[in-house]
Design a protein that fits this description.
Blueprint (H helix, E strand, L loop, with lengths): L6 E4 L4 H12 L5 E2 L11 H11 L3 E4 L7 H6 L1 H21 L4 E5 L28 H21 L2 E7 L1 E3 L12 H15 L3 E5 L5 E2 L1 E3 H13 L2 H6 L8 E3 L5 E2 H12 L4 E5 L8 E2 L4 H5 L8 H15 L1 H4 L2
Parallel strand pairs: 1-2, 1-3, 3-4, 4-5, 5-10, 6-9, 7-12, 8-13
Antiparallel strand pairs: 8-11
Length: 323
Protein backbone atom coordinates (compact mmCIF):
# COMPACT_ATOMS: atom_id res chain seq x y z
CA UNK A 1 0.00 0.00 0.00
CA UNK A 2 1.27 3.48 -0.92
CA UNK A 3 1.61 5.44 2.33
CA UNK A 4 2.61 8.69 0.63
CA UNK A 5 0.12 11.57 0.70
CA UNK A 6 -2.28 11.58 -2.23
CA UNK A 7 -1.49 14.89 -3.92
CA UNK A 8 -3.72 16.67 -6.45
CA UNK A 9 -1.98 19.23 -8.65
CA UNK A 10 -4.65 21.43 -10.25
CA UNK A 11 -3.33 22.96 -13.45
CA UNK A 12 -0.61 20.37 -14.02
CA UNK A 13 -0.17 21.32 -17.69
CA UNK A 14 0.51 24.97 -16.97
CA UNK A 15 3.81 26.72 -16.36
CA UNK A 16 3.75 26.37 -12.56
CA UNK A 17 1.71 23.20 -12.24
CA UNK A 18 3.99 21.21 -14.55
CA UNK A 19 7.02 22.41 -12.58
CA UNK A 20 5.38 21.33 -9.30
CA UNK A 21 4.77 17.85 -10.74
CA UNK A 22 8.43 17.67 -11.83
CA UNK A 23 9.59 18.73 -8.38
CA UNK A 24 7.32 16.30 -6.54
CA UNK A 25 8.45 13.41 -8.71
CA UNK A 26 12.11 14.38 -8.29
CA UNK A 27 11.58 14.24 -4.53
CA UNK A 28 10.17 10.72 -4.75
CA UNK A 29 6.42 11.38 -4.69
CA UNK A 30 4.50 8.85 -6.76
CA UNK A 31 0.93 9.30 -5.51
CA UNK A 32 0.20 12.35 -7.68
CA UNK A 33 -3.27 12.95 -9.13
CA UNK A 34 -3.82 15.12 -12.22
CA UNK A 35 -6.73 15.89 -14.52
CA UNK A 36 -6.78 17.67 -17.86
CA UNK A 37 -9.29 20.41 -18.57
CA UNK A 38 -11.24 17.96 -20.71
CA UNK A 39 -11.37 15.46 -17.85
CA UNK A 40 -12.35 17.91 -15.10
CA UNK A 41 -13.91 21.34 -15.60
CA UNK A 42 -12.90 23.24 -12.48
CA UNK A 43 -15.52 25.97 -13.01
CA UNK A 44 -18.22 23.28 -12.64
CA UNK A 45 -18.93 22.75 -8.94
CA UNK A 46 -20.67 19.41 -9.44
CA UNK A 47 -17.69 17.96 -11.30
CA UNK A 48 -15.25 19.24 -8.68
CA UNK A 49 -17.39 17.87 -5.86
CA UNK A 50 -17.52 14.41 -7.45
CA UNK A 51 -13.76 14.48 -8.07
CA UNK A 52 -12.93 15.15 -4.42
CA UNK A 53 -15.57 12.70 -3.22
CA UNK A 54 -14.11 9.85 -5.25
CA UNK A 55 -10.36 10.57 -5.20
CA UNK A 56 -9.73 10.94 -1.43
CA UNK A 57 -7.08 13.64 -1.80
CA UNK A 58 -4.71 14.53 1.07
CA UNK A 59 -3.03 17.67 -0.34
CA UNK A 60 -3.90 20.16 -3.08
CA UNK A 61 -1.64 22.47 -5.07
CA UNK A 62 -4.03 25.00 -6.62
CA UNK A 63 -2.00 26.15 -9.64
CA UNK A 64 -4.90 26.19 -12.12
CA UNK A 65 -5.63 29.69 -13.38
CA UNK A 66 -6.48 31.71 -16.45
CA UNK A 67 -3.39 33.84 -17.06
CA UNK A 68 -2.02 36.18 -19.69
CA UNK A 69 -0.22 39.43 -20.41
CA UNK A 70 -1.55 43.00 -20.66
CA UNK A 71 -3.28 42.43 -23.99
CA UNK A 72 -5.14 39.35 -22.76
CA UNK A 73 -6.12 40.99 -19.47
CA UNK A 74 -7.48 44.05 -21.29
CA UNK A 75 -9.33 42.00 -23.90
CA UNK A 76 -10.92 39.34 -21.68
CA UNK A 77 -11.50 40.95 -18.25
CA UNK A 78 -14.78 39.09 -17.61
CA UNK A 79 -13.17 35.72 -18.28
CA UNK A 80 -10.17 36.53 -16.10
CA UNK A 81 -12.27 37.40 -13.06
CA UNK A 82 -15.05 34.82 -13.53
CA UNK A 83 -12.95 31.78 -14.43
CA UNK A 84 -10.37 32.36 -11.71
CA UNK A 85 -12.91 33.06 -8.98
CA UNK A 86 -15.00 30.02 -9.90
CA UNK A 87 -11.99 27.68 -10.01
CA UNK A 88 -10.73 28.90 -6.64
CA UNK A 89 -14.11 28.81 -4.95
CA UNK A 90 -14.91 25.32 -6.21
CA UNK A 91 -11.54 23.77 -5.41
CA UNK A 92 -11.18 25.32 -1.95
CA UNK A 93 -14.79 24.63 -0.91
CA UNK A 94 -14.94 21.08 -2.23
CA UNK A 95 -11.51 20.27 -0.79
CA UNK A 96 -12.85 21.36 2.60
CA UNK A 97 -16.06 19.34 2.14
CA UNK A 98 -13.97 16.26 1.37
CA UNK A 99 -11.81 16.71 4.46
CA UNK A 100 -8.63 17.91 2.77
CA UNK A 101 -6.65 19.56 5.56
CA UNK A 102 -3.76 21.04 3.58
CA UNK A 103 -3.91 23.13 0.41
CA UNK A 104 -1.49 25.56 -1.24
CA UNK A 105 -2.97 28.40 -3.29
CA UNK A 106 -0.71 30.04 -5.86
CA UNK A 107 -1.40 33.71 -6.47
CA UNK A 108 0.47 36.52 -8.20
CA UNK A 109 2.42 39.63 -7.27
CA UNK A 110 -0.18 41.70 -9.17
CA UNK A 111 -2.32 41.52 -5.99
CA UNK A 112 -0.32 44.45 -4.61
CA UNK A 113 -1.04 48.15 -5.18
CA UNK A 114 0.36 49.60 -8.38
CA UNK A 115 2.44 52.16 -6.51
CA UNK A 116 3.38 50.07 -3.48
CA UNK A 117 6.58 50.93 -1.64
CA UNK A 118 9.56 48.84 -2.75
CA UNK A 119 10.37 46.12 -1.98
CA UNK A 120 6.78 44.95 -1.55
CA UNK A 121 5.95 43.38 1.79
CA UNK A 122 3.03 41.02 2.40
CA UNK A 123 1.24 43.53 4.60
CA UNK A 124 0.93 45.99 1.67
CA UNK A 125 -1.99 43.92 0.35
CA UNK A 126 -5.13 46.06 -0.13
CA UNK A 127 -3.32 49.25 0.90
CA UNK A 128 -3.80 51.06 -2.42
CA UNK A 129 -5.16 51.00 -5.98
CA UNK A 130 -4.36 48.05 -8.23
CA UNK A 131 -2.83 48.25 -11.70
CA UNK A 132 -5.90 48.93 -13.92
CA UNK A 133 -4.78 46.69 -16.80
CA UNK A 134 -4.97 43.49 -14.73
CA UNK A 135 -7.35 44.50 -11.93
CA UNK A 136 -9.94 41.71 -12.59
CA UNK A 137 -7.25 39.03 -12.38
CA UNK A 138 -5.72 40.63 -9.30
CA UNK A 139 -9.09 40.85 -7.56
CA UNK A 140 -9.68 37.16 -8.21
CA UNK A 141 -6.30 36.27 -6.72
CA UNK A 142 -6.97 38.42 -3.64
CA UNK A 143 -10.26 36.57 -3.24
CA UNK A 144 -8.30 33.30 -3.36
CA UNK A 145 -6.09 34.40 -0.49
CA UNK A 146 -9.11 35.45 1.54
CA UNK A 147 -10.87 32.16 0.80
CA UNK A 148 -7.96 30.27 2.34
CA UNK A 149 -7.77 32.60 5.33
CA UNK A 150 -11.52 32.39 5.92
CA UNK A 151 -11.69 28.60 5.80
CA UNK A 152 -8.73 28.42 8.19
CA UNK A 153 -10.46 30.78 10.63
CA UNK A 154 -13.85 29.13 10.50
CA UNK A 155 -13.01 25.47 9.95
CA UNK A 156 -9.47 25.06 11.23
CA UNK A 157 -8.04 23.98 7.87
CA UNK A 158 -4.39 24.49 6.94
CA UNK A 159 -4.72 26.31 3.61
CA UNK A 160 -1.68 28.37 2.65
CA UNK A 161 -0.93 30.93 -0.07
CA UNK A 162 2.24 31.86 -1.92
CA UNK A 163 2.61 34.92 -4.14
CA UNK A 164 5.27 34.54 -6.86
CA UNK A 165 7.00 37.30 -8.73
CA UNK A 166 7.22 37.16 -12.56
CA UNK A 167 7.82 33.55 -13.60
CA UNK A 168 9.44 32.06 -16.69
CA UNK A 169 10.82 28.77 -17.92
CA UNK A 170 9.76 25.44 -19.48
CA UNK A 171 6.06 25.31 -20.25
CA UNK A 172 5.73 29.05 -20.81
CA UNK A 173 3.28 30.66 -23.24
CA UNK A 174 4.93 32.16 -26.33
CA UNK A 175 1.82 33.54 -27.98
CA UNK A 176 2.73 36.73 -29.91
CA UNK A 177 0.01 38.77 -28.18
CA UNK A 178 -0.89 37.00 -24.91
CA UNK A 179 2.52 36.14 -23.47
CA UNK A 180 4.51 37.73 -20.65
CA UNK A 181 7.71 39.69 -21.12
CA UNK A 182 10.39 36.95 -21.11
CA UNK A 183 8.66 34.51 -23.48
CA UNK A 184 7.68 37.47 -25.68
CA UNK A 185 11.32 38.60 -25.87
CA UNK A 186 12.57 35.06 -26.48
CA UNK A 187 10.22 34.65 -29.42
CA UNK A 188 10.93 38.10 -30.89
CA UNK A 189 14.70 37.77 -30.69
CA UNK A 190 14.58 34.23 -32.05
CA UNK A 191 12.46 35.32 -35.01
CA UNK A 192 14.67 38.37 -35.61
CA UNK A 193 17.75 36.14 -35.63
CA UNK A 194 16.10 33.68 -38.02
CA UNK A 195 14.99 36.41 -40.43
CA UNK A 196 18.17 38.48 -40.19
CA UNK A 197 16.27 41.54 -38.96
CA UNK A 198 18.65 44.44 -38.27
CA UNK A 199 16.82 45.58 -35.15
CA UNK A 200 14.27 44.60 -32.53
CA UNK A 201 12.01 47.30 -31.11
CA UNK A 202 11.09 47.10 -27.42
CA UNK A 203 8.18 49.06 -25.99
CA UNK A 204 9.07 51.84 -23.55
CA UNK A 205 12.34 53.27 -22.33
CA UNK A 206 13.78 50.02 -20.97
CA UNK A 207 14.18 51.67 -17.55
CA UNK A 208 11.42 49.98 -15.51
CA UNK A 209 12.73 47.31 -13.15
CA UNK A 210 11.28 43.83 -12.76
CA UNK A 211 12.05 40.70 -10.77
CA UNK A 212 12.05 37.27 -12.42
CA UNK A 213 11.98 33.78 -10.90
CA UNK A 214 12.76 30.54 -12.74
CA UNK A 215 9.65 28.36 -12.54
CA UNK A 216 11.41 25.30 -11.10
CA UNK A 217 12.58 27.49 -8.22
CA UNK A 218 8.96 28.53 -7.72
CA UNK A 219 7.93 24.88 -7.66
CA UNK A 220 10.64 24.05 -5.14
CA UNK A 221 9.48 26.92 -2.93
CA UNK A 222 5.87 25.76 -3.20
CA UNK A 223 6.68 22.22 -2.08
CA UNK A 224 8.91 23.61 0.69
CA UNK A 225 6.13 25.85 2.03
CA UNK A 226 3.53 23.08 1.73
CA UNK A 227 5.65 20.70 3.79
CA UNK A 228 6.49 23.14 6.60
CA UNK A 229 5.02 22.18 9.97
CA UNK A 230 1.88 24.20 10.62
CA UNK A 231 3.31 25.85 13.74
CA UNK A 232 6.36 27.05 11.78
CA UNK A 233 4.26 28.46 8.94
CA UNK A 234 1.86 30.27 11.24
CA UNK A 235 4.70 31.68 13.35
CA UNK A 236 6.01 33.48 10.26
CA UNK A 237 2.69 34.94 9.13
CA UNK A 238 -0.14 36.79 10.83
CA UNK A 239 -3.93 36.32 10.76
CA UNK A 240 -4.45 39.27 8.40
CA UNK A 241 -1.65 38.42 5.94
CA UNK A 242 -1.12 34.69 5.82
CA UNK A 243 0.35 34.63 2.30
CA UNK A 244 4.11 34.51 1.63
CA UNK A 245 6.01 36.21 -1.19
CA UNK A 246 8.21 34.06 -3.44
CA UNK A 247 10.96 35.67 -5.49
CA UNK A 248 14.68 36.26 -5.79
CA UNK A 249 14.87 39.58 -3.97
CA UNK A 250 16.73 41.01 -7.00
CA UNK A 251 15.54 42.88 -10.08
CA UNK A 252 16.84 44.12 -13.44
CA UNK A 253 15.78 46.80 -15.87
CA UNK A 254 13.80 45.77 -18.93
CA UNK A 255 16.73 47.03 -20.97
CA UNK A 256 19.14 44.72 -19.15
CA UNK A 257 16.71 41.85 -19.54
CA UNK A 258 16.41 42.45 -23.29
CA UNK A 259 20.20 42.40 -23.66
CA UNK A 260 20.44 39.17 -21.66
CA UNK A 261 17.79 37.49 -23.79
CA UNK A 262 19.42 38.65 -27.03
CA UNK A 263 22.75 37.19 -25.87
CA UNK A 264 21.16 33.85 -24.94
CA UNK A 265 19.34 33.65 -28.28
CA UNK A 266 22.41 34.77 -30.22
CA UNK A 267 20.85 37.81 -31.84
CA UNK A 268 23.44 40.46 -32.73
CA UNK A 269 21.31 43.23 -34.20
CA UNK A 270 20.30 46.52 -32.59
CA UNK A 271 17.89 46.81 -29.68
CA UNK A 272 15.76 49.93 -30.04
CA UNK A 273 13.54 51.29 -27.28
CA UNK A 274 10.33 52.98 -28.42
CA UNK A 275 9.87 55.71 -25.82
CA UNK A 276 6.51 56.71 -27.33
CA UNK A 277 5.07 53.56 -25.74
CA UNK A 278 4.20 53.42 -22.01
CA UNK A 279 6.62 52.04 -19.42
CA UNK A 280 4.11 50.86 -16.84
CA UNK A 281 4.99 50.63 -13.16
CA UNK A 282 8.55 51.94 -12.54
CA UNK A 283 9.54 49.07 -10.24
CA UNK A 284 8.07 45.85 -8.91
CA UNK A 285 10.23 43.93 -6.43
CA UNK A 286 8.98 41.56 -3.74
CA UNK A 287 10.30 41.51 -0.19
CA UNK A 288 11.16 37.84 0.37
CA UNK A 289 12.46 38.14 3.93
CA UNK A 290 9.68 35.91 5.34
CA UNK A 291 10.55 33.08 2.98
CA UNK A 292 14.26 33.46 3.73
CA UNK A 293 13.51 33.33 7.44
CA UNK A 294 11.75 30.03 6.79
CA UNK A 295 14.94 28.68 5.22
CA UNK A 296 14.38 28.92 1.46
CA UNK A 297 16.10 31.02 -1.23
CA UNK A 298 16.09 30.84 -5.03
CA UNK A 299 19.01 29.03 -6.64
CA UNK A 300 18.83 29.75 -10.39
CA UNK A 301 20.60 32.92 -11.61
CA UNK A 302 18.73 34.83 -14.33
CA UNK A 303 21.27 34.15 -17.15
CA UNK A 304 21.20 30.41 -16.43
CA UNK A 305 17.41 30.40 -16.20
CA UNK A 306 17.16 32.19 -19.54
CA UNK A 307 19.44 29.61 -21.17
CA UNK A 308 17.22 26.82 -19.87
CA UNK A 309 14.10 28.66 -20.97
CA UNK A 310 15.42 29.16 -24.51
CA UNK A 311 16.46 25.49 -24.74
CA UNK A 312 12.92 24.53 -23.69
CA UNK A 313 11.49 26.93 -26.30
CA UNK A 314 13.55 25.30 -29.03
CA UNK A 315 12.81 21.79 -27.81
CA UNK A 316 9.12 21.97 -26.98
CA UNK A 317 7.73 24.56 -29.37
CA UNK A 318 9.11 23.57 -32.80
CA UNK A 319 6.22 25.18 -34.62
CA UNK A 320 7.07 28.53 -32.99
CA UNK A 321 10.84 28.14 -32.98
CA UNK A 322 11.24 27.01 -36.60
CA UNK A 323 13.35 29.44 -38.62
Amino acid sequence: MNTQPRIYVAGHRGLVGSAIVRTLRAQGHTNIVTRTHAELELTDQAQVREFFRSERIDQVYLAAAKVGGIHANNTYPAEFIYDNMMVQANVVHEAWRAGVQRLLFLGSSCIYPRLAAQPIREEYLMSGMLEPTNEPYAMAKIAGIKLCESYNRQYGTDYRSVMPTNLYGPGDNYHPENSHVIPALVRRFHEAKASGAPEVVIWGSGKPMREFLYVDDMAAASVYVMELPRAVYEANTDPMHTHINVGTGEDVTIGELARLVSEVVGYHGRIVFDTSKPDGTPRKLLDVSKLKALGWTASTPLPEGLRRAYAAFLDRAPEEAAA
